[in-house]
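An instance follows:
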Amino acid sequence: MKSRYIFNEISKLKQPRLYAGGCDVKSGDVIGLHDHDFWELVIVRNGLGWHLCEEEKFRISAGNVFMVPLGLKHGYKSVDSLSIYNLLFYPEIFKSLDNDLRAIPGFQMLFHIEPKMQPGRRMRGNLRIDEKLLPEIVKYVNAMLSEQNKTAPGFQTALTAKFLELVLLISRNCHVADDKYYHHASRISKVISYMEEHYSEELTLKSLARLSGLSLCTFRRRFSEAADISPIAYLLKLRLNKAALLLAGSSLSISEIAFQCGFSDSNHFSHQFRNFFGLAPSVYRSGQPGKLPEPLEN
């Protein structure tokens, strides 16, 4: 049993750095702790078992979904013939669609919030999809496996398309089965999704706390725990990333971009942009070699 898995050794596929696989663990068997240089979306197809995560273990069963981020040591122990799907990928696969997907609370919870949760709370088997959706998920994964095996011209595009459709299906339908640990994180994911869609509007800490249904103090604390950043800092970062995309991909003036991204004053926008990216908006737009940074992820 390896202690570390490398994507290229598993997939043999260079682009788009996406691979579908599966794993059956017989009753009583153990897959020891290991990590990898890729991200892994795990879908429990059937059976019962334990997901081992560093010094913890969490009960999992058919319908559970969870993310294993790069570098996290984990493994499995089967109680009753555990069968899982493993979808291996790198986050850049979402590059062109991430802004759209981030508007879905389930995507926020599964791909952004849960992987950042503190040990003892993450991946406790609380995120689930209804078992009635499993046949449709099986269909998507089987289609991905078929494309991988045939490697016909265009298979990588087909593989990516099926994966993104599957991520959309899961994101729209995953829910918290037990809110003992996820109660506040679930609320925060909904607020973040709201921010993704309404970042250009006037959003205050009080209005966001009201949307979460939490007190102002509790909201601020829980948001920082879930997103590893304060609500106002997250909103600023979100607006600046949106502005960077418009600077690079539109002919709108800097003032127009500032207003579209929720800044009431273009000078204030320019100041914040320079602090964040290290360049003035006009320099960022010019794309001078060696000076143009990529917009940072939220």
Summary: Confidence is low (pLDDT under 50) at residues 289-298. Strands lie at 4-5, 18-25, 30-36, 39-53, 56-61, 65-68, 74-89, 127-128, 175-176. Residues 4-176 form a domain with the Jelly Rolls fold (CATH 2.60.120.280).
